[in-house]
Write a structure and sequence with these properties.
The complex is a heterodimer of chains A (about 120) and B (about 110).
Chain A (H helix, E strand, L loop, with lengths): L2 E3 L4 E5 L4 E3 L2 E3 L6 E7 L6 E7 L7 E2 L2 E6 L4 E6 L8 E8 L7 E3 L3 E6 L1
Parallel strand pairs in A: 2-12
Antiparallel strand pairs in A: 1-4, 3-9, 5-6, 5-10, 7-8, 8-9, 10-11, 10-12
Chain B lengths: L4 E3 L2 E4 L5 E6 L6 E7 L6 E7 L2 E5 L6 E5 L5 E5 L8 E8 L8 E2 L3 E5 L1
Parallel strand pairs in B: 2-11
Antiparallel strand pairs in B: 1-3, 3-8, 4-5, 4-9, 5-6, 7-8, 9-10, 9-11
The chains are: A mainly beta (about 120), B mainly beta (about 110).
């Protein structure tokens, strides 16, 4: 069964600095996707970035980038130039494919940004 | 273009009661999934609806049931509420492959007293 593990419950970063959020996962599939979602106090899950496992190049979306290590089954999120609006819970998620298309989430990381 | 709309926003119920939560998917989306998120935890998959049928189900008791209507909107029903059912209930919609991610609503906060 696919599992997602986020072992850091909380992290803090100074505004304008860089922070890395860790995630590991387990799957027997060879081709899959991975997501990072952001959940601000408004509660709505927002897709931050997605990675396709067959692509060796790490995904980047503006200030957000990932470090995807397929062999190690590691998928970390790097936030550069942190802003106050980045404060939120961040979830790593594995989308199952085919008829079983649910999302498996990690427990999440609460990120606070210090001004 | 409206995203996913959930109602009500907040709800307080008494143990043993029944509750119905509603979800309107993003325009053009045909698949609706429901998740339960306990405080400080990641969302847990409840079930998914496609073409008005339950396509898959997570590890939740039969007290949790749902429905999808021809316009793709969906309802989540919970019977015989327990204190442990207190959580944020999230609805997510998608079209076809989930590889581009789901669009989530802002959820319904259910409190059982």
């Amino acid at each position: 069964a696919q599992t997602v593990t986020q072992s850091q419950p909380e992290m803090s970063v100074q505004e304008a600095e860089t922070v890395t959020l860790s995630c590991t996962y387990d799957t027997s599939e060879s081709d899959y996707y991975l997501f990072w979602y952001k959940q601000p106090p408004s509660r709505q899950m927002i897709l931050v970035i997605r990675q396709e496992a067959y692509k060796q190049q790490n995904a980047t979306e503006n200030r957000f980038s990932v470090n995807f290590q397929k062999a190690a089954k590691s998928f970390s999120l790097k936030i550069s130039d942190s802003q106050l609006g980045d404060a939120a819970m961040y979830f790593c998620a594995y989308p199952h494919t085919g008829a079983n298309s649910k999302l498996t989430f990690g427990k999440g990381i609460t990120l606070s940004v210090r001004p | 273009d409206a995203g996913v709309t959930q109602s009500p926003t907040h709800l307080i119920k008494t143990r043993g009661q029944q509750v119905t939560l509603r979800c309107s998917p993003k325009s053009g989306h045909d698949t609706v999934s429901w998740y339960q998120q306990a405080l400080g935890q990641g969302p847990q998959f409840i079930f998914q609806y496609y073409e008005e049928e339950e396509r898959q189900r997570g590890n939740f008791p039969d007290r949790f049931s749902g429905h999808q209507f021809p316009n793709y909107s969906s309802e989540l029903n919970v019977n015989a509420l327990l204190l442990g059912d207190s959580a944020l209930y999230l609805c997510a919609s998608s079209l076809g492959s989930p590889s581009w991610g789901y669009t989530f609503g802002s959820g319904t906060r259910l409190t059982v007293v």
